[in-house]
Write a structure and sequence with these properties.
Elements lengths: L2 H9 L4 E7 L3 H6 L3 H5 L12 E6 L2 E7 H17 L2 H26 L5 H21 L6 H4 L6 H11 L1 H5 L1 H13 L7 H5 L3 H8 L6 H9 L1 E4 L5 E3 L2 H17 L8 E3 L1 E4 L3 E8 L14 E4 L7 H4 L4 E4 L7 H9 L2 E4 L4 H4 L5 E5 L4 E4 L2
Parallel strand pairs: 8-9, 9-10, 10-11
Antiparallel strand pairs: 1-3, 2-3, 2-4, 4-5, 6-13, 7-11, 8-12, 12-13
Length: 368
């Protein structure tokens, strides 16, 4: 199969849905492996997914699916659970087992100093076990709640289990970075950033005396794309730049910022009335600590590890997300006005803009 052609054909077939922007590593992305195939089993997704892909650039990854896939996939899962609630129980059970397992691995990383092949393999395998069930219970589409009309209790149950195991995902990269720091002490001429660009097998090869794959690391740092369906493949080089441009073109076509008229529409996840304040817009998490008390945070999406910083915000506005996104859960828990899923907030709002956040209408307006 021509993977590049397949990806471009799918990107050009309709609007993309960007699920999140996170600081995950190539290790994490590659460990997901065949999890989309598992999630696409007949009793779960009924083949609803045709496209799933991650980009890794500047130590930040973005996850993409097609909007039409999202809707079909969500409907299939909701319909299947309505017919047989044991499917939901199985999903929650498997998700809980994998979460408990990875939290146990985090504890090992904290206390151990020496790690071998089996530890790296176990970490990678646990990610592979965790993701298919996270994919099943995490849907950031506007139709999420209505899809479960026949089993209306399910969205609340999903909220509870997601909240319980938020740290399973929120802590991954900080724990993985700690693991890398401990591993590089035993290696020569290898950095933590190098390890973030490698798969589990490649890290094991280094630990067992292999040579640092300098050219591969260089390419991966520039831009890496991991394609998951119909086959898993890690791409680097010129083809990835073509694919990334196609993603940008798709976003511009279906979510154009040039039509901005001074008003942004999103989904209110907490709050009533209007909040007015100055914007703090970030697209690079290196500047997140600069957020001041009482500012309105404008961000592509939120990361659990910065929860203590987000508490300073008077309101939070995101490009991505829906009612079960991390930003939504955070805003509800800490009673911070939140509007998510605006698509274009970080593109059209600027640092220092004075804005009005109308929680009743889910609208953000520039005042000055």
């Amino acid at each position: 199969m021509n993977t590049k052609k397949y990806i471009l054909d799918r990107i050009n077939s309709g609007p993309l849905f960007k699920h999140f922007e996170r600081d995950y590593s190539v290790f994490f992305l590659s460990s997901m492996g065949d999890t989309h195939t598992v999630a696409n089993q007949p009793k779960y997704g009924n083949g609803g997914l045709t496209f799933a892909m991650m980009t890794f650039k500047n130590n930040v990854c973005c996850y993409y699916r097609l909007e039409q896939d999202n809707e079909v996939y969500l409907k299939n899962i909701a319909d299947n659970i309505a017919k047989d609630t044991s499917i939901k129980d199985e999903i929650f059970h498997n998700y809980s087992l994998a979460c408990e397992k990875i939290l146990g691995i985090y504890q090992q990383i904290e206390v151990q100093e020496n790690f071998g092949k089996s530890f790296i393999e176990n970490l990678s395998k646990t990610i592979n076990q965790l993701i298919p069930y996270q994919i099943l219970i995490l849907h950031r589409t506007d139709s999420f709640v209505t899809a479960f009309e026949k089993t209306s209790e399910v969205p609340d149950e999903i909220y509870v289990i997601r909240k319980k195991y938020e740290s399973a995902f929120g802590l991954f990269e900080t724990r993985f970075e700690l693991l890398c720091k401990k591993i590089v002490k035993k290696l020569e001429d290898v950095t933590v950033e190098d390890l973030k660009c490698l798969t589990a097998l490649e890290i094991i090869e280094l630990m067992e005396g292999g040579k640092r794959p300098s050219e591969l690391i260089k390419k991966r740092k520039l831009l890496t794309i991991v394609n998951y369906l119909p086959n898993v493949e890690i791409l680097t080089g010129p083809d990835t730049e073509v694919i990334l441009q196609a993603i940008h073109d798709n976003e511009s076509k279906y979510h154009p910022s040039e039509n901005f008229t001074g008003e942004i529409k999103g989904k209110t996840v907490f709050g009533t009335g209007k909040v007015i304040g100055k914007c703090h817009v970030i697209s690079d998490y290196d500047t997140i600590e600069e957020l001041k008390e009482g500012e309105i945070l404008v961000v592509p999406s939120t990361l659990p590890k910065y929860n203590n910083v987000y508490k300073r915000a008077k309101a939070i506005i995101t490009d991505e997300g829906s009612v079960l996104a991390h930003a939504s859960i955070f805003c509800r828990e800490f009673k911070i006005t939140g509007i998510v899923g605006t698509k274009i907030a970080t593109k059209v709002l600027k640092d220092g803009d004075l804005v009005e956040v109308d929680a009743d209408k889910g609208i953000v307006k520039i005042i000055k």
